[in-house]
Specification:
- The complex is a heterodimer of chains A (about 650) and B (about 475).
- Chain A has 27 helices and 3 strands.
- Chain A has about 650 residues and is mainly α.
- A 3-stranded mixed β-sheet of chain A has the order 2-1-3, with no helix packed on it.
- Chain A starts with a helix and ends with a helix.
- The relative contact order of chain A is 0.04.
- By secondary structure, chain B is of the alpha+beta class.
- Chain B is built from 17 helices and 19 strands.
- In chain B, strands 3-2-1-7-8-19 form a 6-stranded mixed β-sheet, sandwiched between helices.
- The longest helix of chain B has 18 residues.
- Classes of the chains: A mainly alpha (about 650), B alpha+beta (about 475).
- At the A-B interface, strand 1, strand 2, helix 8, helix 11 and helix 12 of A face helix 3, strand 12 and helix 16 of B.
- Chain A: It comes from Lasiosphaeria ovina.
- Chain A: Belongs to the SWC4 family.
Amino acid sequence: MASHDLRDVLNLPSDHSSTPRPSKKQRTGPGRPNLKGLAREVQNLGGDNPIAIVPEAAVFKKRRVISRKPAARWELRPFTNSARGDDGALILRHWRRKTDHDAPPDAMEEDGEPGPVENAADGERQVEKTIKTEDSTFAKFNVEISIPQYNDDQYRANLERSDWSKEETGYLLKLVQDYDLRWPIIWDRYDYSPQTFPVNGEAVNGDSTAVVPVKGEQRSMEALKARYYEVATVMMSVQKPAQYMTGPEFQLYETMMKFDPLQEEARKEFALNTMARSKEEAREEESLLLEMKRILARTERFKEERRELYQRLDYPSTDADINTYKTSTGLNSLLQNLMNVDKTKKRKSIMASGEGVSPGTAVPPTAVSEAGPNRRESIAATGPSHRESISGTPVTPAEPTPKDTKKKGAAPAERRKLSEQEEQVYGVTHHDRLGSGPTFRYEKINKLYSHKSGQQQLRITNALGELDIPARLAMPTAAVTGQFEVLWSAVTALVDLRKVSDRLDADIKVEEHKKAERDKARGITNGGGDASSRDRSVRKDGAGPNGSAEKSDERRTEPGTAETKPETRPRSQRSQHNDLQNGNGGTAAAEPKPGSGGPGEGANVDGAPAEVKEEPGAGEREKLGPRPSSSGAHKRSASVLSTISDKSAKRQKK
Amino acid sequence: MAQQTLSSAMPPTDIYGGDEVSALVLDPGYCQTRAGFAGEEMPKQVIPSFYGHIDGRDIFGDEVILPRANFEVRNYMNRDSVVEDWDGATKIWEHLLCKRLQPERPTPPSKNGLNIGDGDGDGDGDVSMEDANGGGGGAENSVDDLEKPLAENPVLMTEAPWNSAKAREKAIEICMENWGCPAFWLSRTPVLAAFAAGKATALVVDVGGANTSVTAIHDGTVLKRSIQRSPIGGLWLSNQIRSMWEMSDPRVDLVPTFMVENKKPVEAGAPAEARLRNFPFPIAPSFRAFEEERVLTEFKESVVEVWRGPGRFQSNEDYAKSQPGRVFEMPDGSNQMWREQRYRVSEGMWDETVAFDQHEGRVAKSQTIPGLIKAALDGVDVDLRPNLVGNIVVTGSTSLLNGFNDRLNQELTNMYPGLKIKIHAAGLTSERRFGAWIGGSILASLGTFHQMWISRKEYDENGAGIVEKRCK
């Protein structure tokens, strides 16, 4: 009724005057909850929004639930730590909840509740009987690294090094063990002195602020690492050859083997420099690096495109001698060759496309290896085959394997690609294209031989003889033939060079003769010295035979400066050094006139092992001339080669 | 204890690696010796390493150092923080560990005169006795045990990184022979300070009382070649203040508090009006020095500040003069405003050219804190340096000087502009003061540490030399 009164007071048109019933109904309609503890009038004051009333129950806080169990008992329980490795000599004690029976610690962790009293008493007695101490739960965290072990024989056979004694190696390994391969610490504590271990800490250097003075010669961390990795890899491979290692083992082996102390040192040097730079420099370098990356990516792409282009062109290799193609028959054979190549190529492409559809229709001898993935699957389905065994188990490098991989290259999508490591393990190598049918390794060499002229063959054989290497290898394994090929190509290059140099010598001689003739004709007598000086300057000019060949060509066509000759000639004999220094001037001065050829030109043209003709007035300088120098070069290159040849010789002995 | 608040019976070992074995941690230093229980966050007992010697008797603790006749103050350490006076050391350590940390031992029941006959009566005493017998396992109540007061507590001790092998062996000898500890460990203070900061790899800058040291820690092991130290510590700073007071005009007299009987307030800069106490006995110079050090410590705590930039103090002296000063009243009532001088005294830590001359000689460039850090970093592998500079732990009481960390950061930024520098300095004063102790407390309560302890058996078998082999 309160709202009604209000409306009265405010002179509002009361709606209930017309229809009092509905309003009443309305009020009750929503079913306003009839809350207790509040007068209806007061409640109505709220109008449509009822006054919020939170009923408060006068209840006391709940009683804490007290367990009827007796208070938990804690005991000072002894325990040992098996990680100490002292058979439980140290017994420490910690507080632990007392359990009903001394079960193993795991079980105890799960049910921490103390059991019935009689059980506890039982347990008490059991504890008395059984072993009293448990092992610490932290013992499992003790991890020890494994260090390569070796005995005396193994050390002598594999690990002898001049700069590492056995004792020092042992010391290093002990430190590695002690400090768990943490190299900074190992390096920090590395303090090996051959006689005795020093008593450190006693003598502190007065002037140095460092408490442990750094003693004279110290091994760098890289040296220590290199030695350790060396020992570790050698012992690893001694215990288990690389082929039989498992994946992770091999990975470790490879990582350790590839450790390069020099590179590490360079890297550290670099890091040191990097530390010293300022922020601006760092930012600049970063942007430069980014730029470089971009450039590199671009060149990479460019290279890729170029390679593709070249592949498309498939240009013939230019290593071979061009002389064979200078004749018409040579050209003919070249054409034939090219056609053959083209043919094989075509056939191959056809085969590649038709592969798998009709595997048997290709060339019979290679049918087995040509077989595509489909075929292989069918074989695999019928049962374990020869090929399955090849790819499944490690094999020694044999003929079928390379072919296998060749074919894998042809159909790369289906086959699993071997990783580098697996290739090494299985002995897979990649070759040039092999002809059909079996071939011998040394035949490749023989083929190279046959391309050479008889005289060159002879020279090559001589050179090899000089190095104590038989022309036919006794044990042509892949490695040996590889090395031999390297050696052989070096010898060939040497022989070629010598040929060129001989030819040059002959040319020079001819020119000298010409000049001598000309000088005679002019009545000037001291031509020999001049010739020799010119000779020298030629040597100086042309570092390589090719270069000098070009030079001499030029010289032939160059117009001579004849009028300066008379003046320079007497001086040139004395000022040899000047000539050597500014060689071009000297050469120009001593240039003979073209076209004034004399007799005796043909005498030395053929560049046989040049017999030196003593020119009048040439004197002893002539002896330093062409021939001896060329032979000197030969000797030198032979000694360069000797390192390679030694290696290959050793292999052969193996 | 954290263990009791957990609902399960066992602490969760996967996250909580603690396993308390009631080990004690002892951290002796030149100025203070700290001792407490492993697993706690503060040392229970901190007493000065100075102890009183009176009439042939040694007395320990701060409260006993009072003006008395025939009283002399001694320290068992030398200025290198290496124990010199082993008799004193043994006594002061025993005083701490056995007397102050352990409750008074009850007289064994067989001797206390209460158990005449077989009085198996009801009572709490008997129950606890049974418990002790049941849980403790036999050997506890033997006569041996009474002679060896620490038979149940492994002891972890700290040492300076340059501690000598002889001193280390002596320490284990005392623990094993005198106190009968079941296990012992010796750890270096910088390692523990790094542990207290939660780091296993850090460059620890410890600016303590007698020494300042910079040490690189890698994986919880000291890198010996990086250990650098210099005398630039709290005592050096005190001497700087002395020098400054002597040189200032008017000269500032240092009268320790115990000498002053009565004082009147005076204007700033005016001479003191105080009546000094007269003692009927001579005061030992060592005691006076100890008391003077208290005044100086107060001065350091309330006035001295580190110039935190811009630049070095020397080039900014005028600017420093404009900074607000602080007034310090001496015990005798004389007081004075200190402006730029309060920066000046500590500047020698950073810039050797500004340091006052002292009796011990000037500091070299390599002895300043930047010099020490540089030398320490040069002594470690290049690969570690960026990591170390990114994990610098500052500890030691003298590092609490105002502005110390700002200045250190500035110096490091100048030295290594390209590297990320991060300084970790505990905010709590106590954590900075007791860094090494806290680290020791953490270490000794770790479950995984139990395999490291040198056990009594190992000591018996190998002799004291084992400490050199094990605590590397």
